């Protein structure tokens, strides 16, 4: 398989103009767990030219039920394990990995130059930190965040809405792991697909959910 063969296959499926926009795009993902790992896989399959992947954590057995990792990845940094998988999908994309904790002090530096950043954290305080930091510190960057995907509720309750001029929220807006509702693979994956779909639309200039 060579680069031109894969690029022509993507053009055949996505259309030349759409693929040109994807290839020129840069997207950041903050957190590579249940949401972020699946978002990254979807974006790699779209052929998004540059993916900035940030997470400090290692793959643990408790991650395997909902995150895009496998038993051989246990103990490895998520950044490295995920980048390896993504290169298996499309080795000609630019994967920029940052094995570190995303904070208010470094988020703008990590995601500088990204058209869109995906918030993919578990904890509410981390989510709030990233939203505030990106919206204030990166005025040209759009943000797609997850909000509510815990439990076993209907997948149809998960939706995408525009919360602010540069912020889109995906989820049911209610369920929370702090309410004793576990994170289960199907709903997490649905929410990740919502986030990736919104990113795709933004890269194509489609601003409405």
Helix-strand layout with pairing:
Layout: H1 3-14, H2 16-23, E1 26-30, H3 34-46, E2 50-54, H4 78-89, E3 94-98, H5 107-110, E4 116-119, H6 124-137, E5 142-146, E6 159-164, E7 167-171, H7 185-203
Parallel strand pairs: 1-2, 1-4, 2-3, 4-5, 5-7
Antiparallel strand pairs: 6-7
Count the DSSP helices: 7
The best one-word shape is: globular
Q: Which percent range describes the beta-strand content?
A: 15-25%
The computed structural class is: alpha/beta
Low-confidence stretches: none
What's the order of the H and E elements?
Answer: HHEHEHEHEHEEEH
CATH topology: Rossmann fold
Give a verbal description of the structure.
This protein is an alpha/beta fold and 209 residues long. It has one domain: NAD(P)-binding Rossmann-like Domain (Rossmann fold, 3-Layer(aba) Sandwich), CATH 3.40.50.720. It contains seven helices and seven strands; from the N terminus they run ααβαβαβαβαβββα. The chain has helices spanning 3-14, 16-23, 34-46, 78-89, 107-110, 124-137, 185-203, and strands spanning 26-30, 50-54, 94-98, 116-119, 142-146, 159-164, 167-171. The protein has a seven-stranded mixed beta sheet with strand order 3-2-1-4-5-7-6, with helices on both faces. α3 (34-46) links the parallel β1 and β2 (50-54). α1 packs across α2 (16-23). The longest helix has 19 residues, at 185-203. The protein starts with a helix and ends in a 6-residue tail after the last helix. 39% of the residues are buried. The model has no long low-confidence stretch (mean pLDDT 96).
């Amino acid at each position: 398989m060579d680069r031109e063969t894969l690029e022509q296959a993507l053009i055949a499926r996505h259309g030349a103009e759409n693929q040109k926009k994807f290839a020129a795009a840069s997207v950041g993902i903050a957190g590579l767990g249940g949401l972020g790992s699946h978002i990254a896989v979807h974006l790699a399959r779209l052929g998004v030219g540059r993916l900035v992947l940030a997470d400090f954590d290692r793959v643990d057995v408790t991650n395997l039920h909902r995150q895009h990792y496998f038993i051989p990845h246990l103990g490895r940094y998520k950044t490295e394990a995920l980048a390896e998988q993504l290169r298996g999908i499309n080795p000609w994309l630019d994967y920029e990995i940052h094995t570190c904790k995303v904070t208010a002090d470094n988020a703008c530096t990590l995601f500088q130059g990204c058209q869109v950043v995906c918030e993919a954290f578990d904890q509410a305080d981390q989510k709030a930190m990233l939203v505030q930091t990106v919206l204030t510190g990166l005025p040209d960057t759009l943000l797609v965040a997850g909000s509510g995907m815990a439990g076993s509720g209907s997948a149809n309750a998960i939706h995408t809405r525009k919360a602010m001029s540069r912020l889109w929220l995906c989820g049911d807006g209610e369920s929370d792991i702090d309410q004793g509702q576990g994170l289960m693979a199907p709903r997490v994956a649905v929410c990740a697909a919502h986030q990736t779909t919104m990113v795709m639309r933004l890269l194509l200039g489609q601003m409405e959910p």
